[in-house]
Here is the input.
Amino acid sequence: MRILLFGPPGVGKGTQAQLLAEKYNLLRLSTGDLLREEVSLSSPTGRKVEQYLKKGHLVPDDIIFEIVDSILIENKDQDILFDGFPRNLNQARDLEKGLAQLGQSIDIAFQMHLDDNEIIRRLVNRWYCPKCGRIYNYITDPPVIDGICDADKHKLSKRSDDTEDVIRKRLKIYEAETRPLIGYYKSLGIYHEVNARGSQEEVLNKISNIVDDYLNIKCRSN
Ligand code: AMP
Here is the structure.
């Protein structure tokens, strides 16, 4: 199974991706996480992409393909959840081609949506654990001890692109570059929209219902 999750920044993709990956035993492929890892390692790719991330701009497609292609090939027998990738039509088409070469395709594409004011409120209050990746929100889901991860007691960090200015820029880029994916996945007949308001569990249930329906239909047709 290959599932794809896209939506504006701050809509809760990362959190839902973590929960879904665990629930359905999927490999989570987050291009955002992979890029941040390159930056923190100060690798040649990390040095190339750092400024794009800081400014909230999309990283050039060739760098994204370089990172993603090898993961797809290495994990060709694994069910995958694409988190925040593709980000534009060019990436979507290339992903489709890459998967077709492996005899695969995307089964379900989810767009999570939320209004801009709620997105900004969520993102300026977002912190994360650089060690285990757990995401916290100081309004809806704060850590037990201020600034410390509940799970591994590591110090929490703030993403450099979670400032109001950069968030507004990322929202504009989403509208221009990523929103067109809606029409693309509708035309493939695999598009689903999920309202991201509500608790993590409520949103997870909405997505899971659609995944379960898909799995039931697949099971009956086999
Ligand atoms: P995310 O963690 O998904 O919010 O991504 C954080 C940042 O990484 C984005 O604002 C972009 O600068 C970059 N990025 C992540 N995924 C992609 C992608 N598929 N294509 C281009 N840039 C990306």
